[in-house]
Amino acid sequence: MPRLPGIRRFRPGQGCGVATRPFGIRTLIIQNGPAVSPFAHAARPAGRPAARKLAGVDPVWALRQIAFQLERSGAPTYRVRAFRRAAEVVAGLSPAELDGRVRAGTLRQLPGIGEATAQVITQAAAGQEPEYLTRLLGGGAPASPTALRAAMRGDCHTHSDWSDGGSPPLEMAVAARDLGHEWVALTDHSPRLTVANGLSADRLRAQLELITELNVTLAPFRILSGIEVDILEDGSLDQTDELLGQLNVVVASVHSQLRMPSAPMTARMIAAIRNPHTDVLGHCTGRLIAGRGRPPSEFDAAAVFTACRDHGVAVEVNCRPERQDPPDDLLRLAVEIGCLFAVDTDAHAPGQLDWLDGGCARAEQFGIGQDRVINTRGTPAAGVN
């Protein structure tokens, strides 16, 4: 993977020195202040991806929009897959065959097309907004984006079907681009997290090659190479230094031994924060507030957030509805200590990329300005990593 020279690293309260790693998320921190993306929310209400005009509605687009909205609302995976599968089937038809099947009423003879998806296709082909999509959109115009949401240029934490996500990297990237992002970091899991199909070193290298290829196709949009790397019990990171050094974004998260006593958990987290490869501390408490729930891990939050501040590591404001991590009291503490932040969706499906709205609103509630959120930054124009 090409390395971009002359990268500087940021330390709050200190000068900027020369970095030895390729362009990474820290470069975004030292840009000259946040700027609103030229693409962000352009003629697009918050909470709704860019849409084509209804004149000549594309059935494939309609099916994918429904899948997107279902993902955004947290609908069951099987329902989302039904619409994405139908979109794939329709995309493989010639215009003449699609028109013929719509006229003859034989869409349901195709594998992967059921009653609901056939109705969507038929209504879209007739130039109508499908009733299913209208119901999902709720009929009303969503609120305008907040100042922070409008300034967001990317997302530092997303997953694809290379680990435990539901869609391929290209589909995730296109959805991010259509939401107005200039870039998205692909941060699939590390090998220790086998339950999430974490990437071995060889699989990660293969993914880096894919990202390079996709960036040529998607330019000027960029997929940033990355990883959500496990913080192991001793505070080390679950991937080789050689590979971590090639990545643009390293999100370090605890996924195991979440009930470790406070003192060793604090030492474990601080060791990971001090690792020169770490850019973002992911969902710091590991709590879950939906379903059966999971209590937050116990650690010395002041010590952990102070380490983040001193080492230029952003504290993640995780947008997933079942996480909302850090909790309010810890988020307030991180603000008071002077941390930087990454407002991230932790998206595992394209529609979940639109969860940034809630995370930005929450960040603003605690007085977090654009100058402290690293994903309000753009990427250098030079090179495609």
Broad CATH class of the largest domain: Alpha Beta
Uncertain residue ranges: 1-55, 381-385
User: Outline, from the CA principal axes?
Assistant: elongated
Distance between the termini: 6 Å
Number of DSSP helices? 14
- Tally of separate domains: 2
Based on secondary structure, the structural category is: alpha/beta
Give the name of the CATH architecture of the largest domain: Alpha-Beta Barrel
Might you state the CATH topology name of the largest domain? Answer: TIM Barrel
Mean of all residue-level pLDDT scores: 84
* Helix-strand string: EEHHHHHHHEHEHEHEHEHEHEH
Tell me the number of strands: 9
Largest sheet: 7 strands, parallel
What does this entry show, briefly?
The protein has 14 helices and 9 strands.
Description:
This protein is of the alpha/beta class and 385 residues long. It has two domains: 8-40 and 145-376, Metal-dependent hydrolases (TIM Barrel, Alpha-Beta Barrel); 59-137, DNA polymerase beta, N-terminal domain-like (DNA polymerase, domain 1, Orthogonal Bundle), CATH 1.10.150. The chain is 37% helix and 10% strand. It has 14 helices and nine strands. Helix 11 runs parallel beside helix 12 (301-311). It is elongated and about 70 Å long.
